[in-house]
Amino acid sequence: MSAAHDETPEGAETDFAKRMAYGDYLRLDAILNAQAPLSKSPDEMLFIIQHQTSELWMKLAIHEMRAAMDAIARDDLQPAFKMLTRVARIFEQLNSAWDVLRTMTPSEYTRFRDDLGQSSGFQSWQYRAVEYLAGNRNLAMLKPHAHTEKRVGPLEEILAQPSLYDEAIRLLARNGFDVGAEVERTDWRAKRAESDKVMEAWKIVYRDPERWWLLYELAEKLVDFEDYFRRWRFNHVTTVERIIGLKRGTGGTAGVSYLRKMLEVELFPELWKVRTEL
What is the pTM of this model? Predict the structure, then answer.
């Protein structure tokens, strides 16, 4: 009986002396050796892996958002829908990750918190890239990355181009909708103001979805993404308050009170407000 359990699955490759194996393809040695706790607390490993995996998911989100924006810009909406659905599901995964981090108690976190120095998730350049790509272009948030060109450079490149929401509005214009001054915009760095014209355009789409089905579906994909993104922000606030209460963040922010303000930020404001108008 035991010998049967030791059998190699029929046809399985077992000699990888000169072949690429699973770990080689995924570069697992680099990934699994990228954790370097600074304290003796066993809970620091959870904290590190939580944030490292979140950064990997955000890397994929950025990849998919860029691809979706390119597809929208060339009026190829079906692939964009798939990519935006994937981004929403990425943030669903990121939401689930908070459940793991919330198993850490305040007592456990305080054992290694001082070892973090001034490092903070507030300084994540990939998180900033997600926000900039979506359209929340708060230029003050470039400052934490200004010390290194390899971080601020990619963010500046994003700011020089239309955002995901800008591409959606430009698509409205290409389909004959009056989006007002939005069609003349060239300064993509500046934070855009909400537009009554854009709201009216979305209202037309939502009142006749059968006629404007592709635009209607795009709008709902954007709302779906922001829905999960908002949940991620809310879970972030809840997790931080559960673990450190109302202390200031390691990066110097006001902690929970700062994060609560972020809950008020809308990425696609007209798409939320149009619901009241219908």
Answer: 0.91
